[in-house]
From TrEMBL:
This is WDR34 protein. It comes from Prunella fulvescens (Brown accentor). Keywords: Cytoplasm, Repeat, WD repeat. Residues 1-45 are annotated as: Disordered. GO terms for cellular component: ciliary plasm; cytoplasmic dynein complex. PANTHER family: CYTOPLASMIC DYNEIN 2 INTERMEDIATE CHAIN 2, DYNEIN INTERMEDIATE CHAIN. It is found in: Cytoplasm. It comes from the Eukaryota. InterPro entries: Dynein_IC, WD40/YVTN_repeat-like_dom_sf, WD40_repeat_dom_sf, WD40_rpt. GO terms for molecular function: dynein heavy chain binding; dynein light chain binding.
């Protein structure tokens, strides 16, 4: 047999042949025989295996210990998005069917238009002449439903004397607010000093506790009214019965006219003052004052700074129409105290007065009948009362004629608001708004169905009759102390502003939302419908 390769390698290295054993005597003799052979000890043979080294090299990468595996995360969300239409294309057959469906019969259409032409033109002409949308403007802006308090104004010196804000008035530009300080509750009325303060809300650096002008007045000021066209003139009625006109542009001596204490002057506090246009002299104005002595007097300005009596009226119980149920009073108490007055915007000769007896009276400046008994004075007094409306349960404190319709509001100590038509004695509705007194009520100058009321519970109530005739739309908290709110006035120039004065001596200027300043569609027709209803 052929020897294996490793046997040949062993023989070359001097290894014994297979099957021989050096320990055997015969073999030992052969090795140690005479001649060329001699005994010796051969070192051990080391035969490296080429096969194992080659196999080991091929399996070097195979290890039972795994190496460290590194990982990484990456977002799979793409950063951009794209839309693609998924509408399948129409087949040619479907397109042909669609085209066949929309074929127009022009001959039939022409025949139809000719038949309806006269009727369409008639309706278009009728719509052209319609007044359904007169005064309506489309509001493309978003509605703002918030009401914010922009300013809280006060005069600390007046507050230190515990004086109250008795009246507020906006000037002709709508940028200046004036308030009068006095006292509507118990106090020493005859000697109480008071103030008239003004703030220009457009002035930079407005200090709400530092008025731009402070006028000292020796008697409580019960009411104020800015001139309708001259921004610096303001009239005030005093507790003493006097009437005073100030020019706010004069800082040294702002008094320019006053009635003084004469036989014609009111003998009771003046609770209402209004500017009237002078029909004879366009550049002049007359003043009207109403007081709880029952007199309504009209004054004209004189060159010497004096206000002279031009004409006057007196509310006398015996001369009020007999359809009313005024309680009988003694002749000495025949005069009915006037607490408020408002002119109709539709007839300058018609005005409504509120009286202490709880009635609202419709009066006429054109009345010629004399007031009885005839008091002495520079001008004879006339009896203006024409109609008495259903009474409140207590004195009426405020009346306000609507600038949009022949309606008026009244409120008083019974906490009710009455909505009246000038043409009927019963109210259209009577709303119990407060458990305490209501001191003032005022129509919005821009929204026919919106009015505000001031309560003795310290709240200003805003009504939108388009939403509800039973409850206020918004009730604003004037102060945290729940002190009464005595006076209100809307700003006719900046119609989003409403001023309110309270017993704590502060004036708050509220910014109304667009819901209360922008007229809605068919609002006038809604008011017409409301006016035509008669309360059961």
């Amino acid at each position: 047999a052929r020897p294996f390769p490793w046997e040949l390698e062993a023989r070359a290295a001097g290894a014994p042949r297979a099957g021989s054993d050096p320990r055997c005597p015969r073999d030992r003799r052969a090795l140690s025989g005479p001649g060329m052979f001699a005994d010796r000890t051969a070192p051990g043979a080391d035969v490296p295996s080429l096969w194992r080294s080659a196999r080991s090299a091929r399996c070097e990468a195979k290890s039972c210990q795994t190496g460290k595996i590194s990982t990484a995360e990456a977002a799979a969300q793409s950063h951009t998005a794209r839309d693609a239409a998924v509408q399948t294309e129409q087949s040619k057959d479907a397109v042909q069917d669609f085209q066949q469906e929309v074929q127009i019969d022009y001959t039939g259409l022409l025949s139809f238009l000719q038949r309806v032409e006269d009727a369409v033109i008639k309706e278009l002409n009728k719509n052209w002449k319609s007044h359904a949308f007169d005064g309506f403007e489309v509001n493309w802006t978003d509605q703002d439903e918030t009401v914010l308090c922009l300013h809280t104004l006060s005069y600390p010196e007046a507050q230190d004397q515990s004086l109250q804000v008795t009246s507020v008035s906006w000037n002709a530009t709508g940028s200046v607010i004036a308030c009068s300080y006095g006292r509507l509750d118990d106090g020493d009325w005859s000697t109480e000093k008071s103030y008239v303060c003004t703030w220009n809300l457009d002035r930079r650096g407005l200090n709400p506790q530092h008025p731009d002008l402070v006028v000292d007045v020796p008697s409580s000021v019960m009411c104020l009214a800015f001139h309708p066209s001259q921004p610096s003139l303001i009239a005030g009625g005093l507790f003493s019965g006097e009437l005073v006109v100030w020019d706010t542009s004069r800082t040294e001596d702002p008094v320019i006219w006053r009635t003084g204490m004469t036989d014609d002057t009111h003998t009771d506090p003046v609770y209402q003052v209004n500017w009237l246009p002078d029909t004879k002299h366009r550049n002049h104005a007359r003043l009207l004052s109403a007081a709880t002595d029952g007199k309504i007097l009209v004054w004209r300005e004189e060159r010497d700074g004096r206000l002279a009596l031009a004409e006057g009226f007196a509310i006398v119980a015996q001369q009020i129409p007999h359809s009313t149920r005024l309680k009988k009073v003694a002749w000495g108490e025949a005069a009915v105290g006037v607490t408020s007055l408002s002119f109709s915007p539709f007839d300058p000769a018609v005005f409504v007065v509120g009286v202490e007896g709880g009635f609202a009276l419709r009066c006429s400046a054109s009345a010629q009948g004399p007031a009885l008994p005839r008091p002495g004075g520079a001008a004879p007094l006339r009896a203006p009362a024409e109609l008495a409306f259903s009474p409140h349960a207590g004195p009426v404190y405020s009346v306000s004629c609507s600038p949009f319709h022949n309606l008026f509001l009244s409120c008083g100590t019974d906490g009710q608001v009455h909505l009246h038509s000038m043409l009927q004695t019963q109210p259209l509705f009577a709303l119990q708004l407060s458990k305490k007194y209501l001191f003032c009520v005022c129509w919005s100058p821009v929204r026919p169905l919106v009015f505000a009321a001031a309560s003795g519970e310290g709240e200003v109530h805003l009504f939108d009759l388009a939403r509800s005739t039973q409850k206020p739309t918004v009730s604003l908290k004037q102060s945290e102390s729940d002190c009464p709110v005595y006076c209100l006035e809307f700003n006719t120039k900046h119609t989003q502003l409403l001023a309110a004065g309270d017993a704590a001596g502060t004036v708050k200027v509220w910014q109304l939302s667009s819901d209360f300043t922008e007229q809605g569609p068919r609002e006038m027709s809604h008011l017409e419908q409301l006016a035509s209803e008669i309360m059961d």
